[in-house]
Amino acid sequence: KQTLLPLLPEETSSFIFPCNPAMQRPELKYMVMELLRCIPLLLFLLFVCGLDHFIFSILSIIQHHSFIEYSYQTSHHLSVNVMGASLMAELLRTTIGALNTSVDTEVETSNLACLPQPTGMTKQQYLDTFLPLGALALLCLAQVYPFRLRRAIAAFYFPKREKTRVLFLYNRLLRQRKNFLYLQRGRVARQAQQPPGL
Description:
Elements: H1 9-12, H2 25-65, E1 69-78, H3 87-96, E2 101-110, H4 123-142, H5 144-147, H6 149-157, H7 159-193
Antiparallel strand pairs: 1-2
């Protein structure tokens, strides 16, 4: 009404104007609170990604500096010579002669199969990890605009309650203005009563 509008500059800071695209002072408080709730998630993600990079670095150092290669060579020759021409010597030559062996062994092995094979996260994987948190922060910034529709939706379904709410707001603003003028008159009167030197 004309008795109330236009609002004073002190009054406009405590109201939300739905058609104003800028974020207003009452909305900023809730938006900052929602953004502060995202900080623990951000810190947790940074901790997990840092821990992942740290473990990857340690495993990579182990892989590059713990490689050992073994080369094992052995030669084994067994030869039994039975001297003589008797029947017993012939029998021993046929039976024990089967034990004559010659073995050359060469083994090359390494611990490559036991070493870790770490694979670090790519930039795309880091981006995919932080993308939901970024979307959450953007939703925290954009939530102020859908919240402005709450009053209009409630007024559509409960018009009597909306009328009561508007009357209450109107009377409260009138009382605040009356009290403001009363307080200002008292302040000016107190200043007038003070000595000029103070």
